[in-house]
Amino acid sequence: MTTVRLPLFPLNTVLFPGLVLPLNVFEERYRAMMRELLKTPEDEPRRFAVVAIRDGHEVAPSAPGMPDPTAVPDRGPASGFGADPLRSFHKVGCVADAATIRERADGTFEVLATGTTRVRLLSVDASGPYLTAELETVAEEPGDEAGTLAEGVLRAFRQYQKRLAGARERSLATGADLPDEPGVVSYLVAAAMVLDTPTKQRLLQAPDTASRLRDELKLLRAETAVIRNLPSLPAVDLTRGPTSLN
């Protein structure tokens, strides 16, 4: 088994391959990570792994009132994740390639990264200034009838978009043609749907593309039916996640 060790960035969100992830980095542990990534030559990938938090806090208490008025300061690379950080994270995450890392005058960072490949979390090391993890790549198998399923998901997704636009009382304008490659379709739809983190995590770690598409088809039909009765819904960009405050 071939493994790789990368910096680990836990978030309260799921990153999918192809999803653009903006980050506002202000905690010292993640600032240290970005400073280290900036040492990588610009013509080489600046990679880190993103995992969704199962049990813990994305932002560790750093001072009274930040972020909890009753919190006591908590510092270190594993702050907010308990004595065994491995147990605090979902086991399947995604490698992120940072296209932009811009340091601000106050030492915080503005980062724009893109998800690339799925990885399985094997171990977490908290001995340095930031978390690192040993990871193995999770192969993306097509599964049975992925092409046919992708066509059905795209049709259902267009109906879902129309319902969303109607619920928001605005016109539908995606600004881009939807892809037709089954794997890309499955990740785009998973990222774009308004779903909770456990459901998105389930889609990320689906055993193959066809299984993910089957799950999405059921979700799209159910969510589209629900939207008919909702007066308004939050806006969702197809390829960008919300800016994380780390």
UniProtKB/TrEMBL annotation:
InterPro entries: Lon_prtase_N, Lon_prtase_N_sf, PUA-like_sf
Top-level taxon: Bacteria
PROSITE patterns the UniProt entry points to: LON_N
Spans through the membrane: none
Lon N-terminal domain mapped to chain residues: 6-224
Pfam families: LON_substr_bdg (PF02190)
Protein name: LON peptidase substrate-binding domain-containing protein
